[in-house]
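Worked problem 6 (solution included).
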Amino acid sequence: MTDDQRTAPAPVAPPATLARPAPVVSDPATDPEAGTTAPAQLPSDDPTVPSPRGRLLPAARPPEEFVAVRRWVLAGAAELRALRGELREQLAAATSDGSRTLGDIEEKVVLVASELATNALAHGEPPTQVRLWQHGHDFLLDVTDSDLTHHPHLAEGRGPGEGGFGLQIARRLSLDVGWYTESGLKHVWATFSGPRRR
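Solution. The predicted structure is:
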């Protein structure tokens, strides 16, 4: 794989319906092991047990009905700006029929994508991938990395400016947030409901 292939955003093609056991985690055109996935794992957790890092984000799978729209592979934080710009363009294209606008959903999706990708880059193992999925007016972000030993925790007891609030931001701006592991990847996802046609 060349550096250009590893860092350039790649569209997911062809779009596939999200169905159990998991979202698409590899591209059959470039991954010889595509389609040979292990069963999905929902890590055992007790969100009531405190840890030095905060409460563990409850493990859950995303809704099944979403269709893959776009995928980005990030090698480092320098690519976050391009991710945000291209994500805005992709979201605008989702409303190109003029039947609706996204309102503040676009900014929420972009901010949460940036926060989750930053977490994956800072605390996970490469590759970091961001996927956008859509179902009608609704969107799903799925951010993956390959660190299965560090589970996502909700920051608690930190002062202003101490950082670590990416998952709290995601929970406030999205409908739902969860995580699970599958085929050597940790997935952290968030869903958003777009405005309905009037």
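Discussion: Residues 16 and 67 are 5 Å apart (CA to CA).
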